[in-house]
Amino acid sequence: MSNNSYEVVIIGGGVCGTALLYVLSNYTNVKRVALIEKEADVALVNSFTNSNSQTLHFGDIETNYTLAKAEKVNAGASLVKNYLLTKDSQQEIYTKYHKMVLGVGVEQIEQLKARYQQFKSLFPDLKLLERAEIAAKEPKVLLDRPEDQEIVALYTDEGYTVDFNRLAKSFVANSGQNTEAKIDLLFNTKVKQISKQEQGYQIKISDQTITSKAIVVAAGAHSLLFAKSLGYGLDYALLSVAGSFYFAPQFLNGKVYTVQREKLPFAAIHGDPEVHDRAIARFGPTAKVLPMLERHHYGSMIEYFQTAGLSVKAVLSFAKILSDPTIFKYIALNFIYDFPIIGKRLFIKEVSKIIPSIKLKDLTYAKGYGGVRPQVVNLNTQALEMGEAKITGERIIFNITPSPGASTCLQNALEDTIRLIDFLGEGYQFKRQQFLDDLSTNSEQWVMSNEQ
Predict the structure, then answer these.
(1) SS3 label, residue 338
(2) CA neighbor of 248 nearest in space, from 138, 360, 395
(3) Do the beta carbons of residue 269 and residue 284 sit within 8 Å?
(4) To the nearest 5 percent, what fractions of the chain are helix, strand and coil?
(5) What is the pLDDT of residues 194-239, one digit of tens each?
(6) Which of 421, 434, 438, 445 has its CA nearest to residue 80?
């Protein structure tokens, strides 16, 4: 095999691309792997420390998760958790905090009580806290809250705040250990074109052309652009939702969530201590629709319209989605949250649901924070497709977004590795059980959930 020929090429060096590199290079007999990243290092876009909510989601307090989804997400997030506990003894990648979701008023309280009964067998550490117990854990949540306001919380000590940039770097540092895999890391390298060949693919990059038997495109919103260039995903478009945050002093001891709003696919407002500095609380995310594939990169607007298309089907699909009164009001309000002066005055109403005593002077807009979460639009059904967005073609996989994001990066890598070994064919092996044994206390649960 020549120096510019590979068995697998991974396009995109975020936490999902690097997780795949880790699994592929340590648990298979694939010998030649390349990771292509357009930035100067891994995880500098949506996986960067400032670009996401830094949360490892298990499904225990995420009130928009069904029990079935929580089972799968919990198994996937547990892989990441056990990787952290195994590889990060100094806690340089993560900080452990408690977490809770607040139920305020009769309707939300009944919802959380019912959820507790349904979910407690899956999450044995989950507790239902009454007012006094909430005050003991999070005093500022009850400070200045009306005494006659009914409130409960679902609570667990198992909360992990993760620096996904550092996690991606750890995946790279621990790739190819004790194996014969040769890994090429191609940074500052843009993929200009992918073309199908008889035995795989040809990839034109910045200064050369390479070939690969199989490809995984893990480039976020750009993945759909690459897919369409090869004739895949033509019935999809993207609604790019940008999340922003506000900073406040140390009001919280852990993560505090609010109940997810019905019909909205976007995250409910929550407060989190920063991963490396508990003295800073971060509130958000807001959800602003922007016509770009990458936050703060206005050159990606052209690529967005290439991806979304300006067809009648695309225009009608966006119009139908955004004409829903609940979604339209939410998106319009979230767009204003980023405005100077007025944005903070409106956003504080959301934060006060968590911290009633917060004052306007306590909030500071987190300039430069937040990334883009692509929401896939099905042009045939004219609806948002929730959850994981993945397109599988002939010896190629396009990961637009996992569900829920970086929390399932290792599970996503596991599933893609299974597909890659199938693509590569006879002679290639994946030590799946060893991987599960090394990193999962829930390996049997994962196997069962994926065999159903």
Answers:
(1) coil
(2) 360
(3) yes
(4) 35, 25, 40
(5) 999 988 999 999 889 999 999 999 999 999 999 999 999 999 999 8
(6) 438
